[in-house]
Design a protein that fits this description.
Strand order of the largest sheet: 3-2-1-4-5-6
CATH superfamily: HAD superfamily/HAD-like
Number of helices: 5
Number of domains: 1
Largest sheet: 6 strands, parallel
Radius of gyration: 15 Å
Order of helices and strands: EHEHEHEHEEH
Structural class: alpha/beta
Bound molecules: magnesium ion
Distance between the termini: 22 Å
């Protein structure tokens, strides 16, 4: 059986983004409506998988353990609704990687592991580097928090994650 999945960027979609990274529960500010959005999507039968760049690890700013602790905190806030987290610790200033978005390796791994039905799955992100790999692997994508609509690879635009969730279940 194939699974339908909503892939989620993290920073700027689930939590408030900061240019200097988020790697502690104290700095992890979940955005309004996120838990409700997760609940709507889970009730509609979607698995939720986070796909996030965490290049602060490559830069030595924080560690893998910090990422695990922060993701455990997110799970505690949302009642463990997220099936899995994929994160890329790399940065091109240190090492090349096919996992760091806009490359698509994290998506490809998740699609293989969870036998994802791409035709009814989505990616939600706030940057072009989220929607570009989604399009490459055949997912429909939704750009949030993009009033100027500068995202070149999005199929749908939404105000925020809750709006995106409502759009998905009404399609
Ligand atoms: Mg983001």
């Amino acid at each position: 059986m194939k699974n339908k999945v909503v892939f989620l960027d993290r920073d700027g979609v689930i939590n408030k983004d900061y240019v200097d990274y988020v790697w502690t529960p104290e700095k992890f500010e979940i955005l309004p409506g996120v838990v409700e959005a997760f609940q709507i999507l889970k009730e509609a039968g979607y698995l939720l998988i986070v796909i996030t760049n965490q290049s602060g690890i490559a830069k030595g700013i924080y560690t893998h353990k910090d990422v695990f602790v922060t993701h455990d905190y997110l799970q505690s806030l949302c009642g463990n609704l997220i099936t899995e987290f994929y994160y890329s610790p790399y940065h091109e200033s240190k090492t090349a990687s096919l996992s760091r978005k806009p490359n698509s390796l994290m998506f490809e791994k998740a699609i293989a592991k969870y036998n994802v039905d791409i035709s009814c799955s989505f990616m939600i992100g706030d940057k072009d580097r989220d929607t570009k790999p989604a399009r490459k692997v055949g997912l429909k994508s939704i750009a949030v928090d993009d009033k100027e609509r500068v995202n070149r690879h999005a199929d749908i635009f939404a105000e925020n994650l809750l709006d995106a969730a409502k759009k998905i279940v009404s399609l």
